[in-house]
Amino acid sequence: MSTISWAKRLLGKQWATLRMERGAREKNHQLYKPYSNGIIAKEPTSLEEEIQEVRRSASPRELDANGTPEFDISDILCFCRRGVESIVDDEVTKRFSAEELETWNLLTRSSAHFQHLSLRLTLLWGLGVLVRYGVLLPLRVTLAFTGVGLLVVLTTIVGFLPNRRLKNILSDKVHLMCYRICVRALTAIITYHDRENKPRNGGICVANHTSPIDVIILASDGCYAMVGQVHGGLMGIIQKAMVKACPHIWFERSEVKDRHLVAKRLSDHVKDRGKLPILIFPEGTCINNTSVMMFKKGSFEIGATVYPVAIKYDPRFGDAFWNSSKYGMVTYLLRMMSSWAIVCSVWYLPPMQRQEGEDAVHFANRVKAAIAQQGGLVDLLWDGGLKREKVKDVFKEEQQKLYSRTLVGTHKDRSRS
Amino acid sequence: MGSRASTLLREEEIEEIKKETGFSHSQITRLYSRFTSLDKGENGTLSREDFQRIPELAINPLGDRIINAFFPEGEDQVNFRGFMRTLAHFRPIEDNEKNKDPSGTEPLNSRTNKLLFAFRLYDLDRDDKISRDELLQVLRMMVGVNISDEQLGSIADRTIQEADQNGDNSISFNEFIKVLEKVDVEQKMSIRFLH
């Protein structure tokens, strides 16, 4: 906190930025303490164990020898309690809204849970607003426009070059330069770890997804081939310009549904060693950076080397999560540019390959676990698509099957009678 | 810079809820936060869809019955008071409450009230009896398609036989209490709320 108040007392964005950068690096080891203030404490036992426990305490009679199913009217208690526990605190819904902070970071947007503290704090906040909106925001917006504008113009120019090798070198330089301007536009303070593991040509880079800024952060340190849907408007113009300079993979809306087509284009790309590594976010949607949700198996079926990357933002300086149901893209970017800074860490993990006899889902989970562990995130099996869709019935059927097994036992038990 | 969560919840309301349910001040504000985060329509009440959006609840075989327990007879919306009143059943029984003077109204989280909550999950028509049909319905919800009708029927018959004492082929609330007298209901039907 003292770093920020120091910074605010002096005018001049550069001084403020430098001071913030130093402060963030010093505190790096403390940055990722997960917010541990939960509402309830849950039992670590599984449902089956609990049911057996309750039955044993209720009626210690002999186990029915001839295999008749065993039901106890008390079984309902376990389901009941678990159901109410999930109403009070569940693992999934809280991943789709911004993370709660332990101490206030002087941004109104994060103040939902903090009480009004004192006049001094309000004054500090007021000063903060002046600095953020009066000084930082205009400077950053100008930089952003410069960065995007240069990207479009320069990539189009590079696109006219016929020579393959020169074109690639220039295209790399142009992309890196423009992304670095955009990074400055967001005042993103990024710490890269283990750069020797950076993705190479012919590989696929996978990372956890928190916001569109992830792309800028990764692309300012290395050159990637982007994958995405073709958009209209400004995004469309940027996409068309970029693809002139080097081969990115843009899909038409209609092509996205065709999984075979997608897989073919991706595998064709990785087979060509001259092309850049592909950047993919397998979660498919933005998650709030406290957890990693299910990875879609598509990119893991292709058989290329996977380079996992973990991205962890420090929420104290500005929350980078894009809640797309609450904010549009423009509002989101303005919020980003009017935060203190975007502070994050990027870890390049050692490359992984699918092992003999391993299926794509298992491989995807293995990669996900590595990313979650490195970034200090919770590893969840739930699908990020639950942000918008209902959970599939098959999961409920699994629960019912599990319970039925406690009633009738497994086939092995029954054959004993 | 007031906290948005508790400015919408007045102090008097918090006090009333405290008296009625026994939750502490900070627990009530945290649960209010949770209530508002579930309330997607932002109208101060929760509908059944709001509950069904919770994936862990949607896959619970008894999910629908549990959701039902939050809604008073015939209503489709539950406000924060109602929400807290239902959650209060799951508050652990503290030692200093066990010896409270029985002349006052029974606290919502007493053993009897916890059992009544569970009883009502079975007894859909609220006639204070669990009939064979009601038992079968709940059993079917819990096992899905994995057990045949005959087996399920015999489970239901055996359960009623063991519990029924007055021979009316259904389980009354008192018979229900008797069957569960050895079960540690206080622990199984309690959620450890923090702070």
UniProtKB/TrEMBL annotation, chain A:
GO MF: glycerol-3-phosphate O-acyltransferase activity
Compartments (UniProt record): Membrane
Listed GO biological process terms: phospholipid biosynthetic process; triglyceride biosynthetic process
Residue ranges annotated for the Phospholipid/glycerol acyltransferase domain, each copy included: 203-314
Pathway in which this enzyme or protein is active: Phospholipid metabolism; Lipid metabolism
Keyword Ion transport included in the entry's annotation: no
Transmembrane feature ranges: 117-135, 141-161
Any one of the GO CC terms: endoplasmic reticulum
SMART domains membership: PlsC
Taxonomic superkingdom: Eukaryota
Main location: membrane
Listed Pfam families: Acyltransferase
Keywords: Acyltransferase, Lipid biosynthesis, Lipid metabolism, Membrane, Phospholipid biosynthesis, Phospholipid metabolism, Transferase, Transmembrane, Transmembrane helix
Database matches in InterPro entries: LPCAT1-like, Plipid/glycerol_acylTrfase
Family indicated by similarity: Belongs to the 1-acyl-sn-glycerol-3-phosphate acyltransferase family.
Official protein name in the record: Glycerol-3-phosphate acyltransferase 4
From TrEMBL, chain B:
Localization, UniProt: Cell membrane; Cytoplasm; Nucleus
Source taxon at top rank: Eukaryota
Gene3D superfamilies, sorted: EF-hand
Sequence ranges assigned to domain EF-hand in this UniProt record: 26-61, 110-145, 151-186
One GO BP: protein transport
CDD domains: EFh
A GO term, aspect molecular function: calcium ion binding
Pfam families hit by this protein: EF-hand_7
GO cellular component terms, semicolon-separated: cytoplasm; nucleus; plasma membrane
InterPro entries named among the record's database cross-references: Calcineurin_B_homologous, EF-hand-dom_pair, EF_Hand_1_Ca_BS, EF_hand_dom
The entry's keywords: Calcium, Cell membrane, Cytoplasm, Lipoprotein, Membrane, Metal-binding, Myristate, Nucleus, Phosphoprotein, Protein transport, Repeat, Transport
Keyword Secreted among record annotations: no
Family from the record: Belongs to the calcineurin regulatory subunit family. CHP subfamily.
Protein name, per record: Calcineurin-like EF-hand protein 1
Species lineage: Eukaryota, Metazoa, Chordata, Craniata, Vertebrata
Gene this protein is translated from: CHP1
